[in-house]
Design goal:
alpha+beta; 276 residues; 11 helices; 7 strands; Arc Repressor Mutant, subunit A; 2 domains; three-stranded antiparallel beta sheet; 61% helix; Serine Threonine Protein Phosphatase 5, Tetratricopeptide repeat
Length: 276
């Protein structure tokens, strides 16, 4: 079985396919997505109901919730899936994934593998896994829904995407492709413009690619951002890194040694299924 919640919500098992359009409305869509993402543990009826009716629970909300879950099960059955995929007991529901895969789990696992591979001197293999994470996490997550659970998961996927882009910047720098490293750092900064490690990586990669003017521009842009938005200056570490880059006193080894540990510590990596 394969479940995708990033992009279009789908479940595939053999020849059976449940598509998002097969679900009867946003409530069924949200309930199925919640149970899929939280598949490792039961989800209480109260938690699901609070997300389905965030402003005010209906008077007979338990009956209404049973009806929503029943519609999801019916849609599964019509698509050729086993309706017992979703079970309930002790006031909770749980989706049983078994030996199947969930795309956001795949994304988190791929980034974890990439971190290990980079640590062990395998930058190209690490880049391939980080790219898997990027491909999954750049897809929209439940567009059109704005309940608190969806917004939290959306933020977690964005953080995972930033960490994967940062990993790509580090892996390509480790492989000596500084222009591509800088490009991925720029993409990551579009998602998280305040992450210092990314600005450091960008400045160093620009300098090592031979673009000292570009490195200076990146530093000035970061300094302006901090001054205008936060009223602070870049850290002494960033200033020193910039001075070394502009003075051509920075080498490939030094760039990696100075930026990679900080970058990985600052990545905020975590599985989108890990928090409740």
């Amino acid at each position: 079985m394969r479940i995708c919640v990033a992009g279009r919500l789908t479940i595939e098992h053999g020849t059976a396919v449940l598509c998002e359009r097969d679900l009867p409305g946003n409530q069924a869509r949200l309930a199925l997505a919640m149970l899929a993402v939280e598949h490792r543990h039961p989800v209480s009826r109260d938690q699901i109901a609070d997300e389905l009716w965030p402003e005010r629970l209906p008077r007979s909300w338990e009956t209404a919730l049973r009806a929503v879950i029943s519609k999801v099960r019916t849609a599964c059955g019509r698509a050729g899936l086993d309706p017992s995929l979703i079970e309930n007991a002790f006031g909770c529901y749980q989706l049983h994934l078994g030996h199947g895969t969930l795309d956001v789990d795949v994304a988190a696992d791929a980034l974890h593998t990439a971190e290990s591979q980079l640590t062990h001197g395998e930058p190209l293999a690490a880049a391939a896994n980080a790219l898997v994470t990027c491909i999954i996490c750049r897809r929209p997550f439940l567009p059109g829904l704005y309940n608190s659970w969806t917004l939290r998961r959306r933020d977690q996927l964005r953080d995972l995407h930033v960490a994967a882009r940062q990993m790509l910047a580090e892996t390509h720098a480790a492989a000596g492709n500084y222009a591509l490293s800088a490009r991925h750092a720029e993409h990551a900064l579009e998602l998280d413009p305040y992450r210092e490690a990314l600005h450091q990586r960008l400045i160093v990669s620009r300098a090592l690619a031979g673009d000292r003017a570009g490195a200076a521009h990146c530093f000035d842009r970061y300094r302006t951002l901090l001054r205008d938005e936060l009223g602070v200056e870049p850290s002494p570490d960033t200033v020193a890194l910039f001075d070394a880059a502009l003075g051509q006193g920075i080498t490939s080894n030094r760039a990696q040694a100075s930026s990679r540990p900080r970058a990985l510590r600052a990545s905020g990596r975590g599985s989108p299924t890990s928090a409740t």
